[in-house]
Amino acid sequence: MFKKAVEAKAQQRLSGADRKKLKRTIRDRFPRASDADIDALLPPKAEITVSKFQNRVHVYGVEGGFPLFFNVDGRGSEIYPTVFALWELPEMLPYFMLKGGEVSRFVIGGADLMFPGISVAAEGLPSFSAGEPWAVKVPGNPAPIAVGSTTMSSAEALKAGLRGKALRIMHYYRDLLWQSVEGHYVPNSGFLEDVVLEDPSFLASNQPSDSSEGATCESDVQQSCVNNENTEGSIDVNGAISDACAASMQNDSENAAKEITTDASDLKSTANVDAAKLDIELSSLSIEDVDSHLDRCLLQALHTTVKDKDLPMPGSTLWSNHVLPCRPSGITLDIKKSSHKKLSKWLQAKTSTGLITVKEDKYKKEAMLISVNRGHPEYLQFKPEKRPVEKVVQAGDSAASESRSQKALEVVEVYKSSVHVNPIFASVGADTGKLYSASEATDIVFKYIEKENLVKQTNKATVVLDATLCDALFKGAIKKGSTYPTEIHKKDLGATFINRMQAHHMVTRGGESVVRKGVLKTVQIMTERRQGNKKVTKVSGLETFLIDPEALASELQKKFACSTTVAELPGWFIALSV
């Protein structure tokens, strides 16, 4: 789940209703945790944040603290605690005890847990169902090192002879979620030397040789324990480890237990220090300081992210999507800590200075940003900060990403000027023979509106149509006898303008790229029944996506063990006879 680096696309505070819902979900999901335990992890008066990642994972935690829970599908049905939360409440989840340090080495390396690597107590395998959250512990250490979901029930496991995958690991000690926490980053180069549960002297004295018992032991363990994307092995240490290996593993497990327990104590002390620093930081900001930060963030947003074409804009959108992202690092902005106390009052105060224009939506009962006075002295005197976007590329993933980019398929819809909109392009000096994206084309029509000053003064969300713009948008599209419109809403202007342009699409695969006129044609898949129960699948339209039908037919023939034929029709198609 956290093996590859994925950037968070959004981070926000939970509302009161969402916090209650989250606590109810945690209470139902983890009955071992009492209400007092949950309140200890998520204090009632603390701000709870959620980070939404591109792979649909949601990570919850107390603002300024460690991540405590994560949601796999973003819907709240599959929520798991992090190792940080389990170190605070080790008994929140039932756990599997590993047989030794050699097994834990692969678990904290990202491998799933197999039944042969689990130490089964004398009373037998505990009862569980498929899909339940379970933790993983090593002998002599109360701190869990991983958390995951069971792949089968205990009855199915016994029926299978305790073979196969027991736990699908979702999160483990020192994965990328762990490394994302400040102060706990572990360089990849020293990862095994720091956390592998194995004595370095034991490895040095047991290098592979023709007659080394230690080499045989290590080789057998690696063959039976590793379970990753390329190997479907099992974590089995019974028959592969000799007595000497088992004694060394016991020492390694004890050393690892001390290390992880030490990290657990460091976690608690670090969390307390971070919380204390946060309290000091918030308390040190006076009301005047908060007001000053609010004004600077607003001006930064007006200069960088708030565009006239996006107006009118709800005040909540202005706050969450524009003002908050402009706050300095390490500063937490809370409108309640300011002299205005409410967002609407703050916006009205800025309206009184003439910087912006705000009106209340009588239907939504919300303040709406109508316009920005970009000639205001405060706006002109403010110099926005340049904040470059840093892109972190993992060294190990660079080759793989480059290989994927060479084979990746990219389809982009582009548009070209037509006879209808040529006067608009000519008026702003835009090239009529160039291809434009939807956003670029929309910018052109808004440049024309700004040049001709066509925004309605009494309603900034409406554009008054002059003869040129009216012909570009509606000439030939209005039935005879109908009246041409005299104005249009800003939110409808972009789509109407793009519909009057010539649609094209650009397809890129690797180093090959092609631009075709018209909308993108989809791939057609049909099935037919021939000669009794024989079925044929026909695929057409592959040329649109630069796919070689001969190569695809050969690949599908191997993949599905069937015969394939290629025939030239109005579109290439491949018939798969199954």
From TrEMBL:
Keywords for the protein's UniProt record, in alphabetical order: Cytoplasm
InterPro entries from the UniProt entry: EIF2D, eIF2D_N, eIF2D_SUI1, Pre-PUA, PUA-like_sf, PUA_eIF2d-like, SUI1, SUI1_dom_sf
Region of interest (Disordered), ranges: 1-20, 203-222
Pfam family, one: SUI1
Record-annotated SUI1 domain positions: 523-570
SUPFAM superfamilies, alphabetized: eIF1-like, PUA domain-like, SWIB/MDM2 domain
Gene Ontology molecular function, alphabetical: RNA binding; translation initiation factor activity
GO biological process: formation of translation preinitiation complex
Matching PROSITE patterns: PUA (PS50890), SUI1 (PS50296)
Superkingdom classification of source: Eukaryota
Xref: PANTHER family: EUKARYOTIC TRANSLATION INITIATION FACTOR 2D
Protein's recorded name: SUI1 domain-containing protein
Organism of this sequence: Gossypium raimondii (Peruvian cotton)
